[in-house]
User: What shape does this take?
Amino acid sequence: MSPAALDIVLLEPHEAALRSLLQRDDGAEASAYVLFGRADISEDPWSGLPRTRLISHEVIPVAVDEMVSASPAHVTWSTRGFMRILGVAKERGLVAGLVHTHPNAAAFFSDQDDRNETELARTTFNKGVLGLASIVFGRENAMAGRLWVAPGETVMASSISLIGSQIKIARAHVAANEDQILARQAALFGRGFNPVVRGLRVGIVGCGGTGSAVGMLLARLGVGFLGLMDKDIIDVTNLNRVHGSRAADVAASLAKVDILAREIRVAGLGTQVVTTKEWVGHPDLRDLLRSCDVLFGCTDDHQGRLMLNRLAHYYGIPLIDVGLRMRAARSGADYDMTGRVSTIRPGSPCLMCLGVVDPRRAAAEGLRRSDPAEFERRKAEAYVDGGGDPAPAVVTFTTAIACAAVDELIQGLTSFRGSQGMTHNRIRRFDRVEDRAMTCRPVASCPICASQASWGRGDVNPFLGVIG
Ligand SMILES: [Zn+2]
Ligand SMILES: [Zn+2]
Assistant: This one.
């Protein structure tokens, strides 16, 4: 069997640390160690094939006294530090990694690199470490990456991504830009844009008012691979805002994901769509979630949001989370009509710190899933929140905030608003014609975003470090 396809993700803070460590005024080559978290995806739902995802977890400099010599054409360091790295990688279940520069050459693995790494890979596997990854930084920010999967055997990375406020994905095989359907957006963003979106793998969690709009917009934007996740059946009260839904779908009890997939397929835009009718926390969704480059959170589900919040950090998958709060005017109080788009990734405060997720409601939802009878008993005694009046929803506002969310993705890919990247937390007041960026600091005790321990951690047991 051929080895799994390989994707390498460098988190923005790690890439910045590497660039500054490896920058040499004398033009000599330089090197550093990186520990990677690893995701073993048994079946990428679009290709049906296994994938491996490596995510940068920690950058470790080569100690000054371990550097042996460096010139513009070589770098040599003692293996003492490497043995220490292997010890840490083995103990914590991480992949050991090397990064070195070719300051005046392309990003490729030289014969010398092959010889050196063959030795190091042998040591790596003798020590029982999961694998040895290697990245070359060439001139003009080019990169090449590979993983030693056995002594003498490597897999080249099919993509290397830089994930932060911007989303930069370099793929080994890029589709040609000959797409007439997308010609008008190439006229704005340039010829490089369409092949990037054609290669994108995007998951949408929740396919209701906002999620259905996000899905149709992403299909028209040319996103090549969409994964739709929602357990719900369409209801008559959804018809006022779910794009593509028909009165006949209610009579037929169609699932929301099937309606959206049907609309995307009949549009004939070349999108490959996969669907799942399970709650986002279900183990069956893990391969799909971990195969995505970007996730959109379009759910009201607090427990689901908490899980996506963790996933974004453990796997370096940017989460664009959407929410709406609509309150009718009452005597003495104006309308409150607020939309929110938050972009969550390692290095920025998480949904917990933003106050977007209510842990009490998340716990109540968890109880309803695991023990419905106990949930109903506590609800009757008013110990848990749940149910209540359904939230107001109007199609123009759900659709407008979906547009704002997809605009953040476009900003992350193109920097059309400037090089600052995606806005961390955008708040739109529809009742005031107001759009503001409101961010926060991480709460010092936050287990997700305040410590780097979760960043790029990859697969752990239990999944995402959560029991139950
Ligand atoms: Zn080299
Ligand atoms: Zn946090």
Q: What stands out?
A: Residues 100, 102, 110, 113, 136 surround zinc ion (ligand 1) (CB under 6 Å). DSSP finds 13 helices and 18 strands in the chain. The chain has two domains: 5-163, 177-459.
